[in-house]
Amino acid sequence: MRKITDCREFPSETHCTLAISGEEDEVVRAASEHAVSVHGHTDGPELRKMIRDSLKDDIPQHA
C-alpha cells in the first residue's frame, strides 16, 4: 500500500503545502531530504522515525 505524508499537518513558518506519496521507504527518504533542505531539520534516526510514524495510507481518489 502506498503511503503519504503532508507538510500541512505540521506547524511550519513557511506554511509548506508539499505532500509526498509512494512506497514507505521512498516517502521516508524523500520527506527527510525535504525536511532538511526546506525546514532546516537535522537528518537522522529520530527524524526518520517521526516521519515513518506519521505516514498514512494513500487512498486513491479515482473516479
TrEMBL record:
It comes from the Bacteria. This is DUF1059 domain-containing protein. It comes from Streptomyces flavofungini.
